[in-house]
Amino acid sequence: MSSISISHIHPRSLKLLKSSNVHRVLSFPQIRIKRPTICCTKLTPWEPSPVTYAPTETAGDNLLKKTTNIFETLNSENTAEVPETSTEKVTDTSNSPVVQLQFLKWPMWLLGPSLLLGTGMVPTLWLPISSIFLGPNIASLLSLVGLDCIFNLGATLFLLMADSCARPKHPTQASKSKAPFTYQFWNIVANVTGFIIPLVMLYGSQKGFLQPQLSSISFAVLLGPYLLLLSVQLLTEMLTWHWQSPVWLVTPVVYESYRVLQLMRGLKLGAELTAPAWVMHTLRGLVSWWVLILGIQLMRVAWFAGFTARARARQHQSSPAADG
């Protein structure tokens, strides 16, 4: 039982009681209400789920330390912010070498063609044939093969530089370029035809079908370097197809341009060797054949440029539609 004291004050005007303050004690019984406990395992949708935290042995030691702020005991190294900052640093450091490599690629646009010009065209056009050609013998054959080997080295370096320039700026992007099957098939047909014509000419001369006959050493001097460089071209094209290099479209243009000059050199050497008329006509036919093939290759380059332009236009048209 609890008691409550209430002071009751009478005004002076009434003067009914002599005492001004009268204390009355009122006692009210205390009512005790027992609240029943309700056990419920399911939570309502608007109630948050209880948070349980089970500290480990190492974490418990850190939480029990006397610090001004309890959050100071938390170790920031275990948070997820560390991988984010580390990845940002990695991306920054990985992008900086890419930018530096782009600056190194710019001189290749001039260095590659200059190297191709110096190793291929200058020796063939300005070097006098009389200084390296001593007649139909092994020394003359080796001299001509040496000139073509110098060109092959320059062409290989040029293709490597072109492949480096064709690579995307970001290494994560795909840089593979697969040549179509029809392109590979017709290139092989053109190269095999260029092989068959000289071999048929040699076979007809050895069997006596073509008169007057042409000696083996004269044939090697006139068409030996041609066959050797053609085999190198075929091997290089097959490697670019296998590696899916972006230079698969440029490789035949490089070698076929030099092949025209190589056959024109053969025509000059044929005049000095007093080669038969059918040999000279065959060489002129080979020059015409490779000029035709070179024109087809340039048409393919134009087609590929138009194809990529249309593909980019479709990509730009589809990207705003996807964003909308």
TrEMBL record:
Pfam families reported in the protein's UniProt record: DUF7733 (PF24867)
Membrane-crossing segments per the record: 109-129, 141-162, 183-204, 216-235, 287-309
Record keywords: Membrane, Transmembrane, Transmembrane helix
InterPro entries per the UniProt record, alphabetical: DUF7733
Start and end residues of each DUF7733 domain: 147-266
Name used for this protein in its record: DUF7733 domain-containing protein
Organism in which the protein naturally occurs: Carpinus fangiana
